[in-house]
Amino acid sequence: YNGIVKYIKDLLTKKWHYVILDEGHKIRNPDTQVSKLVKKFDTTHKILITGSPMQNSLQELWSLFDFMRPGLLGTYNAFMDHFATPITQGGYANATQHQEATALEIAKALKNIITPYILRRTKAEVQEHIKLPEKNEQVLFCALTREQRDLYMGYLMGSTVRSILDKDSKFGDPIRARVLVALTTLRKICNHPDLYLYEAHDDDEDIDEESFGNWKRSGKMSVVHSLLKIWLKQGHRTLIFSQSRAMLCILEQHLQKHKFEYLKMDGSVSVAQRQNLIKTFNENAKFLVFLATTRVGGLGVNLTGADRVIIYDPD
Fold first, then answer.
1. In a domain, 139, yes or no
2. Do residues 67 and 39 make contact, with C-beta atoms less than 8 angstroms apart?
3. More exposed terminus of the chain, fewer Cβ within 10 Å: N or C?
4. Is 294 exposed, middle or buried (0-12, 13-18, 19+ CB in 10 A)?
């Protein structure tokens, strides 16, 4: 999609027989530059492939169909007025019976319009052809260490949280922004205390290299450490995802100290290098762990070399 933005002038000079969008939900926002550009291709054959055609609102569905079949769902404003708004209103907890009935009828009408253009395949339908092993998901609850608990409670009792709870607070920032800051800080403490303790440091002068990132100081890190030791003995290979590059660096430091062979992919890795990293991990079994941020590793990445996945800090 970055290539479309970069080379759009050259691409539009060609007469394309087909335009196929993989990870098509990338154009779900009709106002983004890439969404507007892909809709300029003049071709009679368009295919859009996605596992999540709609994530937040019906507006996204309109944007996808505006690429595949312009005009099928009307203009954006007409679609919002006649489809999206009534369907959304009918789903509210305080919706009237009339609104619920109207929403149901309109949803059925919308389904009838779009069904001829959708070929849907669930995992159950293709399971026997692709031979994927059964996925087993487990949620592990990790107890905070004493240090984490003290930091957590200290922050909860601090001025930031008090300002959120105080209706008469004179803080300048909107309350929603302050809530987000507070939740982000608490998440850092839960991931590893050093993410919170050293977030204000711009250099390494005051960092204790001996204790920084130590796995014993984090409940989550302790669990990851134990899992990796077990899986190493059992011959498993692991993907570890984190939303934070800082947390990924702490995990990387841990792997280095314990002599794990690993590869790492985050936003600092160029797009050209990413596929080489993925190929190396999939083909070379000596690499036992692949570290990736969720933003980089969660889209269009085919990491088949691992049979274990740890999502360190899920949404």
1. no
2. yes
3. C
4. middle
Number of domains forming the structure of the chain: 3
Distance CA 253, CA 296 (A): 20
Q: Residue 206 domain-assigned?
A: no
Instruction: Quote the domain boundaries for residue 231.
Output: 215-313
**b/e per residue 91-111 (b: at least 16 CB within 10 A):** eeeeeeeebeebbeebbeebe
pLDDT in tens, 125-184: 777 777 767 789 999 999 999 999 999 999 999 888 888 877 666 655 677 788 888 999
State the chain's mean pLDDT as an integer.
89
For residues 62 and 56, give the distance between their C-alpha atoms in angstroms, rounded to a whole number: 12
Token readout for 146 is 């004493």
Q: For residue 185, give the nearest of 211, 224, 162, 151 by alpha carbon.
A: 151
Task: Please enumerate in sequence order all residues whose Cβ is within 8 A of that of 102, keeping only pairs 6 or more positions apart, or say none.
Answer: 86, 90
Encode pLDDT of 177-204 as tens digits: 888 889 999 999 999 999 999 875 555 5
* Whole-prediction pTM: 0.70
Identify the residue whose tokens are 């957590």.
152
From first CA to last CA, the distance across the chain in angstroms is: 25
CATH code, domain carrying 16: 3.40.50.10810
Q: How far apart are CA 97 and CA 89, in angstroms?
A: 11
Average pLDDT over every residue of 210-232: 93
- Please check whether residue 127 lies inside any domain of the structure: no
Q: Do 115 and 25 share a structural domain?
A: yes
